[in-house]
Amino acid sequence: MEIETLKTPKNDPEYSGAPEEKSKSPYQLALRRFMKNKLAVLGVITMIIILFMSISAPLWTDHDPEQTNTAMIERPPSDEHILGTNSSGQDNWARLLYGSRISLAVGFSTMFVTLVIGILFGSLAGYYGGKVDSILMRFTDLVLALPFLVFALTLMAILNNVSIPLFILILSILSWPNLTRIIRGSFLSLREQEFVIGAKSIGASNSRIIFRHMIPNTIGPIVVNATLMIAVVIIAEAGLSFIGMGINPPTPTWGNMLNEALSVRILRQHWYTWIPPGVAIFITVLAINFIGDGLRDAFDPKSNQR
Amino acid sequence: MYKYIIRRLLIFIPMLFALSVIVFGLAKAAPGDPFSTMLDPTIDPEVYEDRRDELGLNDSIPVQYARWIGNAVQGDFGESIVYNSRPVMDLISARFWNTVYLGLVALFFTLIVAIPIGVYSARNPYSILDYFGTGFGFVGLAIPNFFFGLLAIYFLAIKLGWFPPQGTVSGSDVSGMKEFFDRIHHMILPGITLGLASTATYMRYMRSEVIDVLGSDYIRTAKAKGMTDRVVLYKHTLRNALIPIITLMGFEFGVLVGGAVITERIFNYPGLGTLFLDAVINRDYPIVMALTLIFGVFILVGNLLADIFYSVVDPRIRYD
């Protein structure tokens, strides 16, 4: 806990003796709590660095990540190839940098698609209740019961040569239920609250109530779960690409870089080929989880039991 | 409670049906038919049509579905395309127990690590071991199991030589007790890899559950009655704190199944996961569909058991 200092309007925004100071909005309060969480701030800084490296990838390497070179196969690290080369003679460092783009893009886009589906289905089910709710929820339960990886693999087996957008769609189709249930849950409780009933009574339209009143009040759980979802998807993409059923080479992703380690020889002798992408996934997921946990505590201080 | 269990069972049946329809639909959506790889492409189209008729591939979709599900219920999933037309069920039963054993080793590892550490950190919050446990929780949830598996092989099997890097048994010459221990030895690394994420999850749950229970009134009453710490811990705290863990186990079946596919691949472990993955890679649809259905049923049953268990042990829960 922070050491309590003397309360003055300057160092304490909640200081009640300063009427001229505007009181903080819930978002500002959440932000303040978030910034106090060291792990969460560390996560944000890490993610900013990773995103920056990813966007500015060409600044850090001159190699083309997809350029194969039969004369330079499985070379150890050198000045030219900082992390050596893989079994196709591609530069590992370049693949690590450019691979982050695909891994992160898949993570963020899948999160975005599930968010759209989740808000749509979740708010319909939670707002209208009754038949709409039970039909949507049975459907959600069913998809939730499908083993994620098994169904993803089955779909990959049926659809030959999956493109990246299709891959994102597959991941989204299998991962929307969680968010949908969470949004539906909070809508069910919000529906009964006075401000919603009030809005209804003055004749606000359904879409206005959903988008202007209910979603802003659900923003905490939505943001937290959407954030954590990115981490789950990054691991899922990496896992599928790792076993060769995700995004296919030569496109670099962290997952298919790790795929090289399925060869015992590379696993044994060329650690610089497979350890860096694994560590990259680990750090990214850890950072996102820190941010997610920080957001949860920030939006809902009561949840902080740790 | 009984009303809830009956209602829950009634939901289970349409879910099973829907699952089977989805799997069947996927099988139908798969390109080609069993012959596209089996038959000589120069074959007379009439013979081809006759063969299709014989196998019922020209029947209406509902008829085909009824036949397929009828056979599946009796354990007949047709023949593998790749493995010399061997019955799918034979291939599955040959590997079924390997995966079950692996799952049990993973579960054993998960429970013996997660419960004691979880309980300890709850009773001694902010102690060194608690911080260690929290750190382990973060790492265990963030490290992908395939990367952990590779690291385990690289450091523990290759560099240190403590464990065999892959397979189930060292050779055909070992037998008896020696074989038993050899098999266990082979299962330790894959078991830990498979159980890692659950270990982290259970530990976190255990910690917060025990903290919750320890703060409750009945524990204070028990202590006030003069019960020893030991009795309070085992008789009152653990019993209640374990409820969510057991429920969680029912819902974790899916994680276990998905994890098994990847873990078995890394360790070249001959279980259902490798069978499934090979079938996916070779587009051996009868095996893919059979295993998808079996895994799906497995998970539905797990969820069902978890829900029923929860309603039995905690009658306060009301469902609507």
From TrEMBL, chain A:
It is found in: Cell membrane. One of its GO terms (cellular component) is plasma membrane. This is Peptide/nickel transport system permease protein. The keyword Transport applies. Keywords: Cell membrane, Membrane, Transmembrane, Transmembrane helix, Transport. The keyword RNA-binding does not apply. It is a multi-pass membrane protein. The chain crosses the membrane at residues 39-60, 102-127, 139-158, 164-183, 222-247, 271-292. Residues 1-22 are annotated as: Disordered. GO terms for biological process: transmembrane transport. It comes from the Bacteria. Residues 100-292 form the ABC transmembrane type-1 domain. Belongs to the binding-protein-dependent transport system permease family. PROSITE patterns: ABC_TM1.
Automatic annotation (TrEMBL), chain B:
The chain crosses the membrane at residues 99-119, 131-157, 184-203, 242-267, 287-310. Residues 96-306 form the ABC transmembrane type-1 domain. Pfam families: BPD_transp_1 (PF00528), BPD_transp_1_N (PF19300). Its main location: membrane. It comes from the Bacteria. It is found in: Cell membrane. GO terms for cellular component: plasma membrane. Keywords: Cell membrane, Membrane, Transmembrane, Transmembrane helix, Transport. One of its GO terms (biological process) is transmembrane transport. InterPro entries: BPD_transp_1_N (IPR045621), MetI-like (IPR000515), MetI-like_sf (IPR035906). It is a multi-pass membrane protein. PROSITE patterns: ABC_TM1 (PS50928). PANTHER family: DIPEPTIDE TRANSPORT SYSTEM PERMEASE PROTEIN DPPB-RELATED. Belongs to the binding-protein-dependent transport system permease family. This is Peptide/nickel transport system permease protein. It comes from Aquisalibacillus elongatus.
